[in-house]
Write a structure and sequence with these properties.
The chain has 4 helices and 8 strands, in the order H-H-E-E-E-E-E-H-H-E-E-E. The protein is an alpha+beta fold. Strands 1, 2, 3, 4, 5, 6, 7 and 8 form an 8-stranded antiparallel β-sheet that branches. The protein is globular.
Length: 201
Amino acid sequence: MKLKQEYFLNQDAVLLAQDLLGKVLYTKIDNEITAGVIVETEAYFGVKDKASHAYEGRRTNRTETMYSEGGVAYVYLCYGMHNLFNVVSSVKDEPHAILIRAIEPLIGIEIIEERRNMLRSKSAISSGPGSAAKALGIDRSFNAKDLTGDEIWIEDHQINYKKSEIIASPRVGIAYAQEHALLPWRFFVAGNKYVSKPNKV
């Protein structure tokens, strides 16, 4: 079942980042559908979070999408080469976002393998946010797209993980965020091979 917009209006990005684990992210490009189970996320808590692009209410052409009402895609370029896909959540002008860091390939495996030029058996195919986005064909053209539309959407397939299966750890690569770099706002499924490193409990 496709998630409705109300789901994304939740104002607790940390809770939502955990809840998105097990949900299935879909894209439809040139009539080809690919999808993967979300197995790793990071929460970015709006204007109060030093790691967030919208910290202290920063607004630029790039970050403007974060200020939308929840339920749209925020895609930005990292290091000038990797497209990173985020779920914008919460209400309008409250710029919360959840970075999708890894997926487990589920549908359209051959297309995913072609996009990544590697086999599904290799964990690197969709491990890490740049790889996960590339596996599903997500680029900057998806920025600000409706997550309840027909090009990119998320479904609930009733894949539920026990609390003991979900690991909370500090987010990756955000040393600039000072004390906020230590917040345990990265969540991943224990033992899933597609989770990016570090992935040990």
